[in-house]
Amino acid sequence: MRKAMFISLLAVFLNVCVMVIAAEETVNEDISKIMNGLIPANAFLVSPDQPASTGPIQLIDFDDDEEKEVIINYKLEAEQQPSPSQYGAIIVKQVKGEWKKVWETSSQGVGLDYSGVADITGDGTKEYLFGVTIGASAGNILEVFKWESASLNKLTKVSYHMMELLRNQEDVGLAVWRRYIADTYFVDVLTWDGQQLVHDDELYDQYYPEIEKYHNDQIT
Questions:
Q1: Is the pTM of this model over 0.85?
Q2: Are strands 184-192 and 139-148 parallel, antiparallel or unpaired?
Q3: 89 and 73 in contact (C-beta within 8 Å)?
Q4: Please, which residues bridge with residue 123 across strands?
Q5: Residue 27: left if φ>0, alpha if ψ -120 to 50, beta else—which one?
């Protein structure tokens, strides 16, 4: 009896595995088809430096319709080096059974520092954060985009050399590090006030030990 039950459970498990593998293969095949003709000719996929372990393709449900949109990051190298390359992001969405590009942005730079999502505005919908490295001294430019009317619209932008997302029970904040001299930085902690990113005293106080530790480490 136990043997028969074990065999039945094993059969169910194997069927589930086959279904999962088939579904993954279908998604990968769909994504391969999506990229054809959507990213510029001679461009190639690129992963951002942050968040850690993020790949060039991300699946995010921006409009809360239980159908995930696809974020694709790419790099188009300049014809003449060492001129800045073009880093881009496109979003494609399945509309009536067909994948269509609904949004695109690009920026000149030397690296893709950030590509990810976070609910910066606190309204329950995640914004898209796209950060491109301009240069070692100039740092990075982060653009924040909000999903509105079936596409993304730019909400704000922030310059930084280093950045960290902070979360407490109510807000998502940005710890923004801007280089002053060598390895010293001015640090600000920003949250959304309904109109713009502004300094947040409470989050700054919570984060201050990290700032103090960093600068103490530089002088010891």
A1: no
A2: unpaired
A3: yes
A4: none
A5: alpha
Q: Are 110 and 138 in contact (CB under 8 A)?
A: no
| pLDDT over 60 at 13, yes or no | no
- Pairwise CA distance, residues 220 & 216, whole Å: 6
Instruction: Give the residue from 187, 201, 136 showing the smallest Cα distance to 158.
Output: 187
The predicted-structure confidence for 170-195, as pLDDT tens digits, reads as follows 789 999 999 998 889 999 999 999 99
Task: Give the pLDDT score at 66.
Answer: 83
Question: Is residue 160 within 8 Å of residue 182, measured between CB atoms?
Answer: no
CA dihedral sign, ordered 202, 206, 207, 213: positive
- Nearest residue to 84 via CA among 164, 138, 154: 138
Terminal alpha carbon distance of the chain: 70
Mean residue pLDDT of the chain comes to 85
CA distance 101 to 104: 8
Do residues 220 and 213 touch, judged by C-beta distance below 8 A? Answer: no
Q: Which residue has the tokens 């430019």?
A: 141
CA nearest 159: which of 132, 182, 126? 132
Long-range own/partner contacts, residues 134-140 (CB < 8 A, 24 or more apart): 134/84, 134/108, 134/109, 134/110, 135/109, 135/110, 137/179, 139/178, 139/179, 140/109, 140/113, 140/114
Tokens of 216: 């103490």
